[in-house]
Amino acid sequence: MAVPEKVLTNDDLAAIVETTDEWIVTRTGIRERRIASERETTATLGLKAAQRALEIADMLPADLDMVIVATSTPENIFPSAASLIQAWLGANKAGAFDLSAACSGFVYAVNMAAQAIRSGSIKTAVVIGAETMSRILDWQDRGTCILFGDGAGAVVLRASGTPGGVLSAVLRSDGTGGDLLGIPTVGSLDMHVPDTLPNGHKLHKMHMNGSEVFKFATRVIAESVHQALEMANLSVRDVKLIVPHQANTRIIQAAARALKLDESLFMLNLDKYGNTSSASIPIALCEAVQQGKVQDGDHLVFVGFGGGLTWASMVVQWGAPEQEERQRFNRQRRQLSYVGAYWRGRLARLSRQVAEAIARIRPERGRMSRLRRRLDSYDIE
After folding, report:
1. How much is the pTM?
2. Is 189's pLDDT higher than 70?
3. Does 103 participate in catalysis according to the annotation?
4. Active-site annotation holder among 111, 248, 269, 275
5. 245 tagged catalytic
6. Where do the structural domains in the chain lie, given as residue ranges?
7. From the candidates 111, 201, 207, 245, which is the catalytic residue?
8. Domain covering 7-317 in this structure, CATH number
């Protein structure tokens, strides 16, 4: 995982909008969130998370076949954040693409990678959930600006003959609820309205119908978790930990009641990071592993829900494929890959700039030659 250093507390927010720490904590469970600096982007945060995941897996970037980034806040429409990260890693044999499924995106992306591995088309993938939600917030809208933060998390998936890994997944969508949560942007039907869209929505800024999204989330979590467990031939009694999308403490409490489970079975770190959209599940997973809440062989459930409307649940049997002893020089080789990728990118851009400069000079030379020939053709004494 990777999160920005800058912390924005509820008291800090109270200086921006009409709110209090008590009001936010009571209704959401959030106490603070991380905010990206001017030099941090979705891709740079995703890169850090991917590098740390490769370090833990002791894998080289050259071993990757695919880089997938689940995000709602890429810095470009294209190139994708995944393509930028692929180049910065030096993963020269890997394909790369972004996946957009809002806060469900990480579960969608892990399933896409797992299915590609099972089909035999790839053997390894890094899946990243990365967001800079602070860039698309209307900081005058108390209903949204108190909720979201920035960050990234990543996992490495690898083919193995050992039973386990992704056991089942349920991916769902209901586009009739698309107006409840969204970010109008380039290509929107309402772009002809200068600054403000219907219902007070703003171009490039998030809008959300909080009460409707709350009802949607509490309904689909329990339903999709049961479906994913049934597909894996498991029951809730077999689950060691549920890692939900970190949206709101009250949503997770409602899900626990619907599933008839103790709240302690749900991983929560919402109070520290807020809602980081597609990054929230991998960040929570990382902290669960660090805290010793996940052991080899445990059955975990990931469940996400968000704009689209989309939702997704996944059952995973935690564990790493058997591997040879950690290679002594892999860390140095990874660092060399990152340095080499940096200079490769710099040289590629420089060579293009030189080529463009030469192309501009050649027409000028051609025009001067034609002018000289015309002058020479005149009989001037």
Report:
1. 0.89
2. no
3. yes
4. 275
5. yes
6. 7-317, 330-381
7. 245
8. 3.40.47.10
